[in-house]
TrEMBL record:
Its EC number is 3.4.-.-. Residues 1-32 form the signal peptide. PANTHER family: ESTERASE ESTD. This is Alpha/beta hydrolase family protein. Keywords: Hydrolase, Membrane, Signal, Transmembrane, Transmembrane helix. The keyword Transmembrane helix applies. It comes from Micromonospora zhanjiangensis. The chain crosses the membrane at residues 347-368, 389-410, 430-449, 461-483.
């Protein structure tokens, strides 16, 4: 089986799990897994890498200390520990940055992410303690000045590294690239919205589809740590900070995040906010914020070429800070964003109860029809055809909307089904089903009302129940944005 088909099956399983969890309850927490060492890191010419093992937060972590081969280790040098963004967290994924620091004379520790990390289990606090364990380990390496060891963090690491820095004075400085200033839930919804909008989808649909999917994911426990608020942590950071964002970042809202960092790093003695012109989320060269140009390719993934001047910006800043001359606080002008992020509230038990009631009342018609048939009743009862149409279209719309928004989130909008008139084709079909269901509900309700004096109490209740099911589609449609342009 190819890597692509395996990944697609994993995303499909995640989407199906989300739908099932919405109906039957929250997902159980993932069991902790032991840390597994990845392949040792092999540096390029002129550098050396030494394998290390150290104790993280309840797990054993494996890493490499990277330095320049000719570095005089009889004197002490600054050090830096690199904290991954989201994903598998293999050392090689931050190898380019490690070599930038190592060539500048900064001893660098990279390590494999903890083994229990995954889509269904993310413990930011544990990963912050892992980063601190890395700092403690690097401080003990011969040739490293223990007073000059800091943290570098990418993307998701921008939630983790500030927690570590706020917790321990062993961290001498903090460097971030693409750090989120919003919660994981809000940030991921914004990220997926950008992907959808790039396919020429209308702004309202680009926002509403991932928002609906993220609400379900958070409400069913399929988005761990989604409510993490980085703001209180930033106010506790007391180290010098260099925070950077790519101008074309489409994964983390750069304007909002830079504004939040600048406004809430109030206890840091030196805050430098930099916007990298035409830059990708990870400080890479890009043409549109989505692609990565050049750079190495490992396992089918292109890492991308580092932006010109990005590495020197970091190493020059670290040299100033570790020499006891942190620069005065400064900030670049805030970049533009294609769209603003929006707050996402997790689905509640009430949302799930309404959804379950919707399914129950729609299914009441075919269930009672089977009972009538078993009792020997023949012929279609009054209102049968609009009621049947309502059941079919209503169930298809309800389950279809839930499944589609979960799929888009699990697939991260890589496949939205093509577009017509600024709408994904599946979304257009779901809109059509919703209209048909609502029309069928009106006809069913009117039929029952007009013939109420001729119908038995039981039959009136059947028609009222299935009509109510059609009306319950409205809250679902409003929440998912099906009625927006």
């Amino acid at each position: 089986m190819t890597q692509r088909s395996t990944a697609r099956r994993t995303r499909l399983l995640t989407a199906v799990t989300a739908v099932a969890a919405m109906i039957f309850g929250s997902a159980a927490p993932a069991a902790a897994a032991p840390s597994v060492p990845m392949a040792p890191y092999t540096p390029s010419a002129g550098l050396t890498a030494t394998e290390v093992t150290f104790a993280g937060a309840g797990t054993t972590l494996h890493g490499s200390v990277v330095r320049r081969a000719d570095l005089d280790m009889s004197v002490r040098h600054p050090g830096i520990v690199l904290v991954h963004g989201s994903g598998t967290g293999q050392r090689v994924t931050v190898g380019q940055e490690a070599e930038v620091f190592a060539r500048a004379g900064i001893v660098t520790l990279i390590y494999d992410k903890r083994g229990d990390y995954g889509k269904l289990h993310r413990d930011f606090s544990a990963m912050a303690r892992d980063a601190l364990a890395g700092v403690h380990t690097l401080r003990g390496v011969p040739g490293v000045d223990p007073a000059k060891v800091g943290l570098w963090a990418l993307s998701e690491g921008g939630w983790i590294a500030p927690m570590a820095a706020a917790e321990s004075s062993e961290v001498a400085f903090l460097v971030t690239i693409g750090a989120p200033g919003r919660s994981p839930l809000r940030t991921q919804a914004w990220n997926i919205s950008n992907r959808i909008a790039a396919a020429a989808v209308s702004p309202s649909t680009a926002r509403s589809v991932p928002a609906a999917g993220m609400r379900i994911a958070a409400g069913t426990g399929l988005f761990p740590g989604g409510d993490h608020d980085p703001v209180p942590v930033l106010s506790q950071v007391r180290q010098p900070v260099l925070a950077m964002w790519g101008e074309l970042d489409v994964q983390v809202p750069p304007r909002e995040s830079a504004e939040i960092f600048a406004g809430h790093l109030t206890n840091s003695p030196s805050v430098t906010i930099r916007i990298l012109p035409h830059g990708h989320h990870a400080g890479r060269v890009t043409t549109d914020g989505f692609d990565r140009v050049g750079g190495p390719q490992v396992g089918g993934f292109r890492f991308g070429e580092l932006l010109p001047g990005y590495g020197k910006l970091m190493t020059d800043w670290i040299a100033q800070v570790t020499a006891g001359r942190p620069p005065a606080s400064s900030a670049d002008g805030l970049p533009a964003q294609r769209i603003d992020s929006r707050s996402i509230e997790p689905a509640t038990w009430f949302d799930f109860a309404v959804f379950a009631l919707l399914l129950t009342v729609l299914l009441s018609w075919p269930v009672t029809a089977v009972v009538r048939r078993l009792r020997g009743s023949r012929g279609a009862p009054v209102g049968a055809w609009p009621a049947r149409a309502l059941v079919v279209t209503g169930l298809a719309a309800a389950l279809g909307v839930t499944g589609y928004v979960c799929w888009v989130v699990a697939d991260q909008a890589r496949s939205i089904g093509g577009t017509v008139l600024g709408q994904p084709v599946p979304w257009l079909l779901l809109r059509l089903l919703l209209v048909l269901a609502l029309v069928s509900a009106v006809i069913t309700g009117l039929t029952g009302w007009r013939r109420r004096t001729q119908l038995s109490v039981g039959h009136r209740l059947r028609l009222a129940a299935v009509t109510a099911g059609g009306l319950l589609l409205l809250p679902l449609a409003l929440t998912a944005g099906l009625l927006q342009p």
